[in-house]
Amino acid sequence: MTKAFSADRLDVKAFAQAAGQLSGRETLLRYKRLAQVAHKLHPDLRVDWTARGELRERAGLAPGVWLQLQAAAELPLVCQRCLGSVDVPLQVQRWFRFVADEASAQAQDNDSEEDLLVLSREFNLHELIEDELLLDLPLVPRHEECPVEIKMSVGEDELQESAPPPAVNPFAALANFKVRGPAK
């Protein structure tokens, strides 16, 4: 009998021991922080993901618990050049090694090339998927080639139109008064 695993409360060690696999195609609305970043949200936006667990032998040590995560989504963002909507593909493929506790993770982090996470019997895989997709967001989203012409500088005419009218000198009216010498 195969054990059913849940992405919301995953027993990571049991998942790896069973060489378990999970996958999903879910609405972007399930991932609240990711949905908040989206420029125009619509119900067709999806997150596709697959997770696979495995135990890997290590020299002289107990087998290590590993999880492979693959996730993909296409997110509408605001192009920073033309300010229009741009669909940005997000793609994550990463391996994670699980350790017993936070202290072990901190102790091994500097010497480890892989990403380390703390082993849990109620690991939320959806939170990891969302975190990884958020980390894949570009710093400056933009089109390869914007669909509209972009003004790269402000022209002379536009500068003159937007310039404020010249300030009136409050002492200019005094120029109309002539200084006359003493009356004779």
From TrEMBL:
<dbReference type="InterPro" id="IPR003772">
    <property type="entry name" value="YceD"/>
</dbReference>
<comment type="function">
    <text>Plays a role in synthesis, processing and/or stability of 23S rRNA.</text>
</comment>
<dbReference type="GO" id="GO:0005829">
    <property type="term" value="C:cytosol"/>
</dbReference>
<comment type="similarity">
    <text>Belongs to the DUF177 domain family.</text>
</comment>
<keyword id="KW-0690">Ribosome biogenesis</keyword>
<dbReference type="GO" id="GO:0042254">
    <property type="term" value="P:ribosome biogenesis"/>
</dbReference>
<dbReference type="Pfam" id="PF02620">
    <property type="entry name" value="YceD"/>
</dbReference>
<protein>
    <recommendedName>
        <fullName>Large ribosomal RNA subunit accumulation protein YceD</fullName>
    </recommendedName>
</protein>
<dbReference type="InterPro" id="IPR039255">
    <property type="entry name" value="YceD_bac"/>
</dbReference>
